[in-house]
Amino acid sequence: MERFRKTENGISKSIGKAIAENSLIENNDKVLVGVSGGKDSLTLLKILSMRRKWVPIRYDITACHVLSNKACLRCGGIDKLKKFFEELGCDYIFEKSDIINETGDFSCFWCAWNRRKVLFNVASNMGISKVALGHNMDDLAETILMNLFFHGEISGLNPKQVLFDGKIVIIRPMIYLEEKLISRYAKEARFPVGICKCPNAEKSKRRYIKDLINDLSKKFKYVKKNIMNAPHRIKEEYLGVGYD
């Protein structure tokens, strides 16, 4: 129990730091938390819910889980999620969406884009401007490399991203947290498992990049942090020409 509390406090402090340094949540905010059912989103929801008890600001939380009517996503365990939300005392909503496009294609980009679109629509209909996502430090490093390798650009994930002239603001309170700490916490907290499983989880480009970074990190300690810091240390005098 002592180890669990230490882990929980460490995660809470990291989330609090991200919130404070980037003005992610302010007094009287209404926040829609996208909950996929994975360890990241469940951790985010629980910690944000807990912090309301002692932080000096007031904010409301609504959890949103996007359902797909396509069997290939193998989503289940909705009752587990409901129980989880109710134990936290959070308002919640389940919203259906067709993740597969008209041609029957399925990709990580298409899935993420559609799920995010659903979250934006739900937030807009409920009069909520802040949408919280469970991206962590590993996601940031992976996204930077993915955009570099597969799109030929240097870009990542912002802790706070303002969209549609401020009508929607994406916030990422877990951006300072490493995935291994979140995984440990989810296991110690005994979060529900088997809620949703992605059929592309083990064969996607992101999986390849994740494995690449993990392999490099075994030999070179600061690989992950160096990737994340690189976009802030651009030396323009050493940049070459672009190629079409």
Physical arrangement of strands within the biggest beta sheet? 3-2-1-4-6-5
Strand content: 5-15%
Structural class: alpha/beta
CATH architecture: 3-Layer(aba) Sandwich
**Which residues sit in consecutive blocks of at least 5 with pLDDT less than 50?**
none
Q: Helix content range of the residues, please? A: 40-55%
Order of helices and strands: HEHEHEHEHEEHHH
Counting DSSP E segments of at least 2 residues, the number of strands comes to: 6
- Supply the number of structural domains: 1
In angstroms, what is the radius of gyration? Answer: 18 Å
What is the CA–CA distance across the termini?
Answer: 57 Å
Q: How would a textbook summarize the main sheet?
A: 6 strands, mixed
Shape descriptor reads globular
Fill in the CATH topology: Rossmann fold
Q: Could you walk me through the main structural features you see in this protein, from its secondary elements to its overall organization?
A:
Helices cover 45% and strands 14% of the residues. It is α/β, with parallel strands linked by helices. It has one domain (2-238): HUPs (Rossmann fold). The chain has a 6-stranded mixed beta sheet with strand order 3-2-1-4-6-5, sandwiched between helices. α1 (2-22) packs across α6 (179-189) and α2 (39-51) packs across α6. The longest helix is centred in the first third of the chain and has 21 residues, at 2-22. The model has no long low-confidence stretch (mean pLDDT 88).
